[in-house]
Known about the structure:
This protein is an alpha+beta fold. Helix content is 32%, strand content 34%. It has one domain: Toxin ADP-ribosyltransferase, Chain A, domain 1 (Alpha-Beta Complex). It has helices at residues 23-33, 51-61, 65-77, 79-87, 94-102, 108-118, 153-161, 165-169, and strands at residues 13-20, 39-48, 120-121, 127-132, 140-142, 147-150, 172-179, 185-188, 201-204, 209-226, 229-243. The longest helix has 13 residues, at 65-77. The chain is globular. The model has no long low-confidence stretch (mean pLDDT 94).
Amino acid sequence: MSLPLVNPFSTPYEKWSERDATPEEMRQHLEANGFVNTSAKDALLFRVANAFEAAAYMAKVDMDNGLEFSIDRYLDGDPAYAEWTDAMPSPTPPALERYQEEYPECDFAAANQDVRDCGDVLSEGQFLFHAGRWPDGVDSFVTDRPLSTTFCPQVAMRNMDHKAKAHDAGQIDLLVLRAHQPRTLVFAFERRETMMGHEKEVLFATGAELTFRSRTLIKSDYRAAKWNCPDKLIPTYVVEVDIS
């Protein structure tokens, strides 16, 4: 039995500019919510209604904690996501816990075995995110170690900043992964009361097949930093990929 679909963008995320609220707007907000809000929505800047739009938006703005908080709130209240976490063993198996906390100095083989022992399969059409660099000239490949993915494109982007990976890669490919004919087992890490829960991580076992679908340039001037090196301005792409 596969894990049910989880779609954090089923209620679209909207980013608005704000202005000072009028006295009447402050009164109405107080009556409706029990507290005063001194600002009011002005103009709609962005609307995110699906995974591709979420990735494109994040690639454009680089950071928006509002989007990540929206995903967190959705996962907290989604019965389908609760089925994911209920399907996983608690506490997290030791090798997977070490994988999260000690990566990349961890035992990949042991972590992979834990995913195979207690993971489950995604439903057709499930979307997740991963950032890296798609191999040049490659249409598809099969992973030879566990693949980390997330429900949040901001988390994927920040992982590229970690240890200057974006600087070294010379570009960011923000992958929108769509489960197609899924067969690879995954492990969904507990999000609450764990050290790395903010990553909203879903780990694929070794052997997932990734197939390139499309590439879209979003911006050409992402500022990638590295200690003791000049910053680089690098391109950011959204890459649509099918994953088995």
